[in-house]
Design brief:
301 residues; 14 helices; mainly alpha
């Protein structure tokens, strides 16, 4: 992004947003404060990304991998495992997006899920252990029941708020089947003979995942691939903001750009992101958060 000091940059970014609108013959008739609030949301999105990037070069506590530990942290665990156990890093990434868990809950859902709640395992529910289960569907059914009966019952984050634990067995089995059919995580996400660029491969994988993983819609698929890309697990980068099927991001785009077609909204979301030198996922998240409170900045996790 062009600016990093929040105190001054929000005003400058707001000016640049209005400049983009003017140069593309789009109305800029919202109150001035709304553009500054959007600028603050963009800065927040970039700072969240910067925190993840900083972890890539940090020393990770080995206990971050242990769901029984107070130091358990899925993001740190993924980073720690990415060079030593690639399958496990991808599996943890999937679980993180599936739960939409966060540090705000002290990773409560992830701890129970990765810990194999009620399965009497001697280790976490690793990718290897999952694939070694003789009756996988029965074990997944037992896991779903144990999670639903545990206290407190784990709750998904707001991006997965309408998901039910009753769907867990088919979601997980569809993921396992899909990865196996593709020849494994590495064959899918790091193919040796891939001639596509990062954005083209993102689009290809996006379509594949949408078609094959049960109840992984636009947002879950988008966030999963973005996470894999940011953590170096896949050579991908979003090719757009994927506004067409969005809820909050589309409302934000309409508020900012006007009542345009889905194609035009996504085109301008990408155009503004390029103009401000910000990532497409960061733009998508900022538009979503901004439309909830366009005249007052609210920090979202």
């Amino acid at each position: 992004m062009k600016f990093t000091d929040t105190s001054d940059s929000s005003i400058k970014i707001a000016e640049d947003i209005r400049s983009y609108l003017q140069s593309n013959n789009l109305a800029e008739n919202l109150p001035t404060i709304t553009y500054e609030v959007l600028a603050l949301q963009l800065i927040e999105s970039e700072e969240a990304n910067a925190r993840i990037q900083a972890l890539l070069n940090s020393e990770i506590d080995p206990e971050s991998i242990n769901p029984e530990s107070d130091k358990f942290d899925p993001i740190k665990a993924i980073i720690s495992l990415r060079h030593t156990n690639y399958d496990e890093a991808c599996w943890l990434s999937f679980l993180l997006i599936y739960t939409d868990d966060s540090a705000q809950t002290e990773w409560a859902f992830m701890k129970k899920l990765y810990g194999g709640e009620g399965l009497n395992l001697q280790s976490p529910l690793t990718w290897q252990l999952l694939n070694e289960q003789p009756s996988l569907n029965e074990r997944l059914e037992a896991l779903a029941v144990s999670l639903s009966q545990s206290y407190p019952k784990p709750k998904s984050g707001h991006h997965r708020a309408y998901e039910s634990l009753s769907h867990l067995p088919i979601v997980f089995s569809s993921y396992v089947d899909f990865i196996d059919e593709q020849g494994g995580h590495k064959a899918l996400f790091r193919p040796v003979d891939n001639a596509l660029d990062r954005q083209q491969y993102f689009k290809l994988l996006y379509d594949l995942i949408r078609q094959n993983i049960y109840r992984f819609g636009r947002l879950s698929t988008y966030e999963y691939l973005c996470l894999l890309g940011k953590l170096g697990l896949a050579e991908v980068a979003p090719d757009s903001c994927y506004i067409a099927e969005a809820g909050g991001p589309k409302r934000g785009a309409k508020l900012l750009f006007g009542m345009l077609s889905n194609e035009q909204l996504d085109e301008h979301a990408v155009g503004l992101a390029d103009y401000l030198e910000i990532g497409y996922q960061e733009m998508e998240a900022a538009l979503c958060h901004w439309q909830k409170s366009p005249e007052r900045f609210i920090k979202y996790d």
